Every structure is written in structure tokens, then in C-alpha cells.
């Protein structure tokens, strides 16, 4: 499991309800979430207790999400990458994550099939959600990853490194050379060359 998932599971203890001057978000029934996700009822109970400790209102906004991410990547600036991950988790684009959205995102990333995880990765890189990945979008994500990994990473990375990485990967993925990457091109390239998937560093930085 990844760091965020482990952090949530580690909070397996009873928590007193906090008196809040807001309406609490009530999650779907655990049975429904069990069917929709790849987690057991017990795991969901543990995760919800942890989620409520971090987010007593039952929802998490982007700033809180960024603060959580920053704890796992103190060596760099994770704010930009956390922003993109948050948007990918936030399916209804309302600016906050419900427990269900949080669980479904973690379910795909920690236990999803390769197909499901690559679909998630495509959605991450497709920043504007138009069904295509442009070179600018890929540059934004890769640069955010490099910023998060920090200047102390080995080997040393800089803007030129990011640009070279994007140029190389984009050239491989843009099979028909039309300047954008479709989902089919993305999947075909990843299936053909697993080094591309590893080089994108997605799952190492999200999990």
C-alpha cells in the first residue's frame, strides 16, 4: 500500500465526535462502498475513522489535501502535483473530496488492475479533460513531479531534464504524429513498453 493509504489505516482507534458548526457529510453505506471499491468493510471502517480525524467535516478541500501530500514529500514542493491529483480524485469538480471519492481513488491506485491504473494516469495527464494529452499538459505534470521530488533527488533534475523527458516520452506515445496523445495511443505505448510507465513515475508519487 502507499503512504497515504497506510497513514489512514494506522488511525485505527476510536475518535470522539468533534462539535462542529457545519453540517457533516454522511458517507454512503459501507455495503455500497464495499461493492464499488476493492476494500473490505473492516478496512473502510478504519479508513473512515482516519478520514474523519484528518477531515472532521467529512470532506477535504484542496488546501488540506496539499498539506497531507506535503508531509510525504518534504524534500520538495508537492503543491502543484497535489493539485493535479486532487482534481483527478474530484470527479464532480466541486472543489472538495467526499469520503467516497477518496476511497474510489485509492481503490484504483492501490488495488486496481493495470488497465484501471493507466486509465487513472491518463486522466491525470489530461488536465483539461478533453480526451487528449498535449505536450504542454505532459510538461506540466512532469514538472510538478520533479518539483515534488526536490533538488536533492538523484540524479539531479532541472528544467532541461524535464523537457528532455517529455520530448522523449511524447514522441513515443504520439504514434500518428498529430501533436496529441489519445487514450488508445497512451494504452498501446504503455502495454508495449513498460519502461515508459515506470518513467512516468506516477504510481510511485501517488501511492
Automatic annotation (TrEMBL):
* Superkingdom of source: Eukaryota
Metal-binding found in the keyword field: yes
Gene Ontology molecular function: calcium ion binding
- Give residue ranges for domain EF-hand: 77-112, 113-148, 161-196
Q: Which SMART domains match?
A: EFh
Gene3D superfamilies, sorted? EF-hand
Keywords from UniProt, A to Z, are: Calcium, Metal-binding, Repeat
Which InterPro entries would you find in this protein's record? EF-hand-dom_pair, EF_Hand_1_Ca_BS, EF_hand_dom, Recoverin
The residues that cross the membrane are: none
The answer to whether the entry has keyword Oxidoreductase is no
Q: Which family does it belong to?
A: Belongs to the recoverin family.
Q: What is this protein called?
A: Kv channel-interacting protein 4-like isoform X20
Q: Which gene encodes it?
A: LOC111101212
Amino acid at each position: 500500500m502507499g503512504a497515504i493509504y497506510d497513514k489512514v489505516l494506522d488511525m485505527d482507534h476510536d475518535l470522539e465526535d468533534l462539535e462542529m458548526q457545519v453540517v457533516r457529510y454522511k458517507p454512503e453505506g459501507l455495503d455500497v462502498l464495499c461493492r464499488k471499491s476493492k476494500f473490505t468493510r473492516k478496512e473502510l471502517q478504519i479508513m473512515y475513522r482516519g478520514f474523519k480525524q484528518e477531515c472532521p467535516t467529512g470532506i477535504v478541500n484542496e488546501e488540506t489535501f496539499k498539506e497531507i501530500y506535503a508531509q510525504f514529500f518534504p524534500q520538495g514542493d508537492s503543491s502543484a502535483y497535489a493539485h493535479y491529483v486532487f482534481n483527478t480524485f474530484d470527479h464532480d469538480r466541486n472543489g472538495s473530496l467526499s469520503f467516497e471519492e477518496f476511497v474510489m481513488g485509492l481503490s484504483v491506485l492501490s488495488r486496481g488492475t493495470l488497465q484501471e491504473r493507466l486509465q487513472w494516469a491518463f486522466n491525470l495527464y489530461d488536465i483539461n479533460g478533453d480526451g487528449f494529452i498535449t505536450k504542454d499538459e505532459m510538461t506540466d505534470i512532469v514538472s510538478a513531479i520533479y518539483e515534488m521530488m526536490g533538488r536533492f533527488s538523484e540524479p539531479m533534475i532541472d528544467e532541461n531534464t524535464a523537457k528532455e523527458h517529455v520530448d522523449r516520452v511524447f514522441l513515443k506515445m504520439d504514434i500518428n504524429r498529430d501533436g496529441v496523445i489519445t487514450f488508445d495511443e497512451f494504452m498501446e505505448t504503455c502495454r508495449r513498453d513498460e519502461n515508459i510507465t515506470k518513467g512516468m513515475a506516477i504510481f510511485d508519487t501517488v501511492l
